[in-house]
Amino acid sequence: MTPANHNHSHHHHDHNHHGQRGLYFAAGFTLAFAAVEAGAGWWANSLALLSDAGHMLTDTSALLIAALGAWLAQRKPSPRHSYGLGRAEFIAALVNGLLMLMVVGVVVVHAVERLQQPLEVKGETVSVVAFIGLLLNVLVLYLLGHGEADLNRRAAALHVLSDLLASIVALLSGLVIVFTGWTLIDPLLSMLIVAFILYSTLRLLREALHGLMEGVPLSLSLSAVGADMAKQPGVLSVHDLHVWSLSSQRLALSAHVVLADLGQWDAVLHGMRNMLLQRYGIDHVTLQPETTTRIVRFEGS
Predict the structure, then answer these.
(1) Is 202 helix (H, G, I), strand (E, B) or coil?
(2) What is the mean pLDDT of the chain?
(3) How far apart are alpha carbons 298 and 229 in whole angstroms?
């Protein structure tokens, strides 16, 4: 491993370590507030607060799943897992995405029930507890923001963001109920927030499944990468090109490179690796040199 690669991995490890610690802190804060909210809901006889406490428990599990995924992703390669366990991030994101779909389903069911049979809500208690929850969720999102924005952390942040939005909805609906007595505002606002959460969750699930299926990273164009590789000095063509994700932050590439002169291989290899790292962020590159009299243009295969 070159010194440059070593520094890159050390820097990456430090980011992951701080990010993982942030996930644990976030989980602790969220669990503590879920207990407070459940107690307040029981005391005030508020179904809304009890339901949100359940939502906060889901957030806690999401943060712990994300922390587990981050920990597994840090594990070094072994004879059994030669690439390491970076894909654990995708699995954790997938599990959290599916949990979010369950939360969305529960919120929709409750919102429909409230629209059909409005319940009496103690607006003052809901508003106070919702405001505290709002502050807590802002703090947790701040903790999650310190570290690399990988797919796993985005999945955890989506849970917390959904709860932050739910706190805003609870606060607004509590205030509206206090001043106007209109209880239907709560389920109506909840349905609006659910639409946003559903959109974000489906995007997250798509990326997680795409990564698990070894798809070309959504931010890259395979044909553009191949064309840039084929433009390097001394290269006639590129074929059997594959780009995939080892983790949400680390990309790998393999390809066959056709040369006019094998004697130029060292210079071509060095130039191509630098180009792929600087332009596309691909740091794990495996290239096979070939010579041929027949020039095959890159076709993405």
Answers:
(1) helix
(2) 78
(3) 9
> All domains of the chain, ordered by start, with CATH?
3-212 (1.20.1510.10), 222-291 (3.30.70.1350)
- Six-digit token pair at 106? 């529960």
DSSP state string for 52-88: HHHHHHHHHHHHHHHHHHHHHHHSPP-SS-TT-STTH
Most trustworthy range by pLDDT among 20-29, 94-103, 218-227: 218-227
Q: List the strands of the sheet with 282-291, edge to edge.
A: 235-245, 251-259, 282-291
How many helices, marked H, and strands, marked E, lie in the chain? 8, 3
Of 85, 74, 77, 79, nearest in space to 13 by CA: 74
Percent of the chain whose pLDDT exceeds 90:
21
Per residue in 56-77, pLDDT (tens digit) is: 777 777 778 777 777 877 788 8
Q: Exposed (0-12), middle (13-18) or buried (19+): which is 103, by Cβ within 10 Å?
A: buried
Report d(CA 9, CA 14) in Å as an integer.
Answer: 9
pLDDT for position 8: 42
Q: Which helix (H) or strand (E) holds 25?
A: helix 3-44
Retrieve residue 56's tokens: 């906060």
Dihedral pair phi/psi, residue 179, rounded to 5°: -90, -25
Mean pLDDT is highest, among 51-55, 64-68, 108-112, 243-247, for: 243-247
pTM for the model? 0.70
